[in-house]
Design brief:
The chain has twelve helices and twelve strands. The protein is an alpha/beta fold.
Length: about 300
């Protein structure tokens, strides 16, 4: 069993398609098929069921997928450790970030790091705070960047910035005209919010608590999977939302949104790293850059 065979197996398993796996790995379909056949023959086990022109993992394949991913992760870690010996002359830094961080705060920092270290390859996964913490914990990324604290003792958090939350309303809304955010105002509104596990979604509950209400006291009409969807829903008059001022800024400039300041403390952004895993030179250099930006009090 070789690492190449494992990479091919994982690629096919994740896509459930030989042709798409071949395209992703830049290999021929015959090479892909031969690698899978070699694994199945060598170990006398069927990893995939062939159903028409499609394929599906068998139970043995599902079990083996987790083990294959773990082996590849360890192999990548070993390779990264060797590359790390070369300092910052080359290497890879795998990042994950929650949506507000990834879409509105991080791009300028990535560009700054890329300019300073052009031979370091960067990759970025985007999810909600819970997903990013999970990816960091399992080792599929080197650093996670999230909104708000994460309750996981295996992860080491480092505060890197902070964010201001605002109540976002359709332009000209009566609550916006009054300019007061209290229990009465919140009860008048219908809300759209992010899904469970998102840093932004947590803030609506904190806003309710700040005026003596519970989340279930609010009229929440819909959950959405992105900040941009929330902003568009508010612009369309669907409801109100609690969003980062970074997310709301474009709609305010366009005259489509009104915002009200909230009596909530700034929301911190954290960088997460697994305490038990080696952090490469590239990872340390990226954190040092963020620390330097924070110490200069760069705007968030």
């Amino acid at each position: 069993m070789t690492l190449d065979q494992l990479r091919i197996f994982v690629a096919v398993a994740e896509r459930e398609h030989v042709t798409r796996a071949a395209e992703a790995l830049n290999l021929t379909q015959s090479t892909i098929s031969a690698a899978i056949a070699a694994l199945e023959t060598r170990h006398d086990v069927r990893l995939f069921d062939r159903i028409g022109r499609g394929i599906r993992l068998t139970e043995a394949g599902r079990v083996f997928l987790g083990e294959a991913r773990a082996v590849l992760s360890r192999a990548e870690a070993a390779s990264a450790a060797l590359v790390d010996l070369a300092g910052l002359s080359r290497g890879t830094l795998r990042l994950a970030a929650s949506q507000t961080v990834a879409n509105y705060w991080l791009p300028a920092r990535l560009q700054g790091f890329r300019a300073a270290h052009p031979r370091i390859d960067l990759s970025l996964r985007i999810g909600n705070t819970e997903q990013v913490a999970g990816w960091t914990g399992e080792g599929s990324v080197d650093l996670g960047l999230v909104e708000g604290p994460v309750d996981d003792e295996d992860l080491s958090p480092q505060r890197i910035a902070e964010d201001r939350l605002v109540l976002v309303l359709p332009r000209g809304h009566a609550v916006a005209a009054r300019g007061i955010v209290n229990a009465r105002a919140l009860r008048e509104l219908s809300f759209v919010t992010r899904e469970a596990g998102s840093g932004t979604g947590v803030m609506l509950a904190r806003l309710a608590e700040s005026v003596g209400l519970k989340l279930h006291d609010l009229d929440i009409i819909m959950e959405m999977a992105s900040n941009e969807a929330l902003r568009s829903a508010v612009e369309a008059g669907m409801g109100a939302a609690v969003l980062s001022s970074l997310v709301a800024a474009g709609g305010v400039r366009a005259g489509k949104l009104s915002t009200l300041e909230l009596a909530l403390p700034p929301r911190p952004f954290f960088a997460l790293h697994h305490r038990g895993r080696h952090l490469s030179h590239a990872g340390r250099a990226f954190l040092e850059m963020l620390e330097a930006n924070t110490s200069r009090k760069m705007p968030t």
